[in-house]
Amino acid sequence: MEQITVTATAGEHHLIDVESNLSVVDTEALDLIQHEHINQALSRVSGGWISRGNGQEHLTAIRSPVLTGAGGCGAFFIAQDGVSLRAPGFCNTNQLFDANTEQASRIEVLKGPNSTLYGSNAVHGVINVITPDAFNQKFSTVGFSTGPNDYYKGNYSTQFSNEEHAFLLYGNGSHDGGYKDNSGYAQQKINFIHQFQSPLWSTKTVIAATNLNQETAGFIQGFESYKDEGLKTDNPNPEAFRDSQAFRAYSEIKYQVNPTTLYQMTPYVRWTEMEFLQHYLPWQPVEKNAQKSLGVKASIEKQFEHFNWFAGIDADLTEGELEEFQGEAFSTTIPAGMHYDYTVDASVISPSTQLQWLASEALTLSAGVRYDKTEYDYNNHLSAGDACAPTVDNCRFTRPIDQKVDFDEFSYQLSGRLLLADSMSIYGQVSNGYRSPQATELFRLQAGQQVTDLQSEKMTSIELGTRGLLNSLFYDVTLYTMEKENFIFQDTNRHNISNGKTSHFGIEFTLNYMLPNDFYVNANGTFANHQYESSLLISREDINGNEIDTAPQHMGSVQVGWQPQARTRVELEWLHLGNYYLNPENTAEYTGHNLFNLRAAFTLNRHWSVNVRVLNLLDEDYAERADFGFGNYRYFVGEPRSVFASINYMFDE
Q1: What CATH number did the domain enclosing 570 receive?
Q2: Which of 61, 283, 391, 542 has its CA at 20 to 30 Å from residue 353's CA atom?
Q3: What stretches pass through the bilayer (predicted)?
Q4: In the predicted model, what is the mean pLDDT of residues 228-236?
Q5: What are the backbone dihedrals phi and psi of residue 443, each rounded to the nearest 5 degrees, phi first?
Q6: Are the CB atoms for 398 and 387 separated by under 8 Å?
């Protein structure tokens, strides 16, 4: 209850004072999990599911189905210290591998629409990776981990600090030979932090870089093929790969004019470059994309006797480019050569303001509004129109003419918190979120579509929750309902349109209970329904009223642990994923799974500590992700029982 959080508000607040839902995976949990993939850490977040692909690939779900394509990342605002990992119109479904989540201070997850705080893309949720406070890092460390399939990882951190300055350098490098044939990856992450503090000024400058070189394994096909011992390690796409590099630098500058007035500015630059084979398409083209961005987030916070006022403005300039090339012709309508080659200059300007009324010691009410102006300037570097020969009808790829497109959006948020006791509160929120169409939805067209007339996706949400501490039990329970309009999808004619409607409602809970004799139980879960509310032309059947595919109605996790002292911790984890449909017609289904993991961490002395993890303890046959495409059941296979071990050395201060 005393934990300081930043993602759910405009500044730092204790969890009991937050007026909306918020889940936190803290340092202790991250140190115990020692995750090889981000889904292992975020499985502790109610209402969230990071669906694991091969290597470091993943798809995200927060109060949503697992979304794919541009909508699979455009629906979520994913950030480090509040700075988006990718430019607003150029997201990537796998972008969480751009952040050093393994050595983060904590990961905060805000569920549901929050565009008033974060702007475009904060439709279904926000994932914010918080970097360490360099002043709090008192030791230098070095560590090594190993596991099956030639997995190994090295990590390090070193620091220096005095009363005014703190420096922290940390990072990790990992290699995985891959469970599947001809698969595996090598990944490196490095971060540098400098902090300065004085009575009036404070700064936190962060430089982060990542590199990923991956040999990607594709789906295996066939009904429940993930149970077939002869197919589990097959890689139908040994030629698939993904190479990705990312760089970010930003400086959070705070000027505390007086105890009631705070100015803050965060200028930033970011750069990403990626090349990969689209192995999930039968014709397997190669895509190259890159973005360069320059931006700033600026704000003022002012406290009055009974009011707190916040005003801010965000600005982002991005130059993005994309190429798609195919070496050999797949058919007359899917030719060899360059399918797309374009650049997009994008700008986003977004002012916002919030007013919080301290109505009494127990009651707090807030209201906020944001305006967002997004502009795209698209320049095609190839001939306009079809990519096929002039005599070919129904060409798969269409290149629109040069054009400028803009979107204007408003968002609002009304929230409140009533403190029933020192450690018990109820909270509620009415909010909306939006996302402007992504550049690929606007300009990478197919089947003769020359111009899109897409609207921004919009979500309206109502949530009501309660959190508190009752003796040794912490609880946080939230009930929500959400309606989405202008859902962007590709219809059966392969045209991008935006007249879809969906609904989402459910209940989420987080429980932490301290038992006698140093035992504890943590649990999180969600019961939800995600449904099509219009007859979308993504099927030749009427799907209005059907459940959305890849959207389990129930999922969650339970951790039972024993921590007799700070130096020892043993934990058994149960992961539950319910059944879900694989297609909009609701005719194909995955039955779900239950997994068990065992983790133990021991501090041997003031220098040495060890960590052992047994994943999939019962050696369950399961699919990390199930899919139905091009007439086939498709699966990313879950790995069998695996044992990982880590050793860490801490240097004297």
Answers
A1: 2.40.170.20
A2: 61
A3: none
A4: 93
A5: -125, -10
A6: yes
